[in-house]
Specification:
Helices cover 39% and strands 29% of the residues. It is an alpha/beta fold and 147 residues long. It has a single domain, classed as HUPs (Rossmann fold), CATH 3.40.50.620. A five-stranded parallel beta sheet has the order 5-2-1-6-7, sandwiched between helices. The longest helix has 17 residues. The N and C termini lie far apart (39 Å). 37% of the residues are buried.
């Protein structure tokens, strides 16, 4: 049986945050948990440093930081279970679909960025998720809002 979980796919864009805000509103309205997913495709790492201070940044680290920031910036009622977040390996649409299946989500929320013009013909994350998810998908209209 599916749990009452809403999954939202995010990247580091304002439009993805608007989709996450809509997902949070839906989760709150239906008493669902919210699970924020940010994808990374490879294990490439970069080393940064200043003097003797060094740190390593990987795709997974960056994606987790993005998901955590989105989760922490959302408005969420006190006393409710915290929003969960994860960095998921794979192309964005595949990672979102796989994570939704893993947590047995009832709903996946994505923004409609790249669903216009040539993107509509060649495909988009929202289009791929809508056709590949084994649960309901809500595509948030994030286009034209200051973009």
């Amino acid at each position: 049986m599916r749990e009452n979980i809403v999954v939202v796919g995010v990247d580091n864009s304002d439009t993805a945050f608007r989709a996450a805000e809509a997902a949070a509103e839906i989760a709150i309205a239906f008493g669902a948990r919210l699970h924020v997913v940010s994808a990374f495709e490879d294990d490439r790492t970069e080393v940064y440093g200043v003097g003797s201070d060094k740190w390593i940044e990987s795709g997974a680290t960056f994606a987790e930081r993005v998901a955590k920031k989105v989760a922490s910036d959302l408005t969420w009622p006190e006393g409710r279970e915290e929003i969960s977040y994860i960095a998921a390996r794979g192309k964005p649409a595949d990672a979102i679909i796989d994570e939704a299946e893993r947590v047995q989500a009832r709903l996946v929320v994505v923004g409609n960025r790249r669903m216009q013009g040539l993107g509509r013909i060649l495909g988009s994350i929202a289009n791929t998720v809508a056709h590949g998810a084994d649960c309901d998908v809500y595509i948030v209209n994030t286009v034209g809002e200051g973009d």
